[in-house]
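Subject: for your reference before the review

Hello V.,

The reviewers asked for a structural picture of the protein, and I figured it would be easier to keep everything in one thread rather than splitting it across files. Below is the amino acid sequence we used in the manuscript, unchanged from the supplementary table.
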Amino acid sequence: MKPSARTVFVTGCSTGIGRATALLLAERGFRVFAGLRGEQQAAELVSAAHGNLTTLLLDVTEDAQIASAVETIQAASPEGLHALVNNAGVGLAAATVLTTPEELRHLFEVNAIAPLRMIRHCLPLLRKTHGRIVNVSSMNGTQALPMVGAYSASKFALEALTDTLRVELRPWRISLTLIRPGQVRTPIFTKAREQIDKRRDKIPAELLPTYGEFYRLGAEFNERGAKSRTSPEHVARVILRALNAHWLRVHYHVGLDAHGMNLLRYVHPKLVDRVLARVMGLFKPVD
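And here is what came back from the structure prediction:
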């Protein structure tokens, strides 16, 4: 690794956006520390990077593992950390009322609490460089949609934490931004497909006449997402732009659908509700 390279810590690098970001940053000369959970994925990532990248086995919900990773980074980069990219996350495709408290708790643990854990552990290194923090959110962190209500709740929480931290970390000139992708071609849609298939068979009998159709339409929308034109590499390029920007934006929207959803904030919420209910087969009242 180049000793003068800017050091970046990226989480969730096994697949998708995190993997694409780690590879792109390494290619562009950053010193990349890539956090991920699988040894095989770690070996494959190192092989694909051809240098400038170190993998760290990391569960972002475990303080001890985060502390160990930060110690490794500090030893290799005593000058500090240029940026932390909080990308690790999980999804859940389910009707909100059929989501268990345990499932909701897990979503918050990974998608909202873990980024805060990472920030707390990385702050000493970020203060040295007046670094920046990139939190990968989602357009579902600005607009809650049917079938992803619990996931949206966790991303809304991440957005709120980022908004407050932008002010609270200002004295150390640490800047924060949110990346808001729309639908991106990642393995999350394969996982969602499996979740929908399993959960559709467990819909309570009294909800089946309505939610059976709801889940069917949810599966159709999931398949559209799996074919999205927005690739992980597209998001990675936006993250690179944020790391190089002289003036960091508060938000970066990625994908045409993300820009389209951003316009919903100008539409009356009850009108949005009516449209979503009709599209998802939930418009007719049940006797």
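For the response letter, the relevant points are probably these. The radius of gyration is 20 Å. The chain has one domain: 7-187+230-259.

Happy to draft the paragraph if you're swamped.

O.
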